[in-house]
Amino acid sequence: MIEKHLDITTADGAMNTFVVHPDEGGPKPVVFFYMDAPGKREELHDMARRLASVGYFVVLPNLYYRRTRDYWLRERTEAGMAEMFTHMHATTNAMIVSDTRAMIDFVDTQPEADASKIGAVGYCMSGPFVMHVAAAYPDRIHSIASIHGANMVNDLPDSPHLTAAKIKCEAYFACAEIDKWAPPADIDKLEAAMKAANMKHRIEWYPKAEHGFVFPQRAVYDKPSAERHWERVLDLFARTL
């Protein structure tokens, strides 16, 4: 495979980004991989490589680039978690929509990428982001997956569930049974909004799994659930891209 660390020029600066894709047989459909709150790190690079290995041009940006080019959660101490949440809360849905415009412009210029087919996957804090991106660019985003997405329903005017009427693509939601960031009541409201909008979607609960279950280096990693998530995400992209 071909791997690159490069900058994508956005409205707010230079977004350092990991790009990986097969070294032959292109152009390949595109997958935008949105990081979780602990930041862009080698663990996520490995996940991006797994996507690329089955035939995708994967773009994994550092969503905290406005604040730092080299952050990832190294220690889960009180101070470490506080720093992570500071970065997370400073990263808005509007910022990600703007950054995604730059990502689309980037893949439109890459000969190895088939930018007519773009999917998006978001983990934890990025669960909301993929909904906003799909709503903002319905003519470019062909499918989205939200994996134990956090805060999918809230009282703010940009709550993710309010985007449902603008989303035209298919969506998959993997929900951990044990997840304070996405309790069943919130997911019920999300589902109601999607049904009201006639949005094509699937919500799947992962029994006994905890928030963060997909990440191999996390204490809550659950391999059977993680592998199921890969099966679902790869099937979604195979059908829609």
Automatic annotation (TrEMBL):
InterPro entries: AB_hydrolase_fold, Dienelactn_hydro, Dienelactone_hydrolase-like
Gene3D superfamilies for this protein: alpha/beta hydrolase (3.40.50.1820)
UniProt-recorded Gene Ontology molecular function terms: hydrolase activity
Keywords: Hydrolase
Keyword Iron in annotation: no
Taxonomy, superkingdom: Bacteria
Protein name: Dienelactone hydrolase family protein
Organism annotation: Caenimonas koreensis DSM 17982
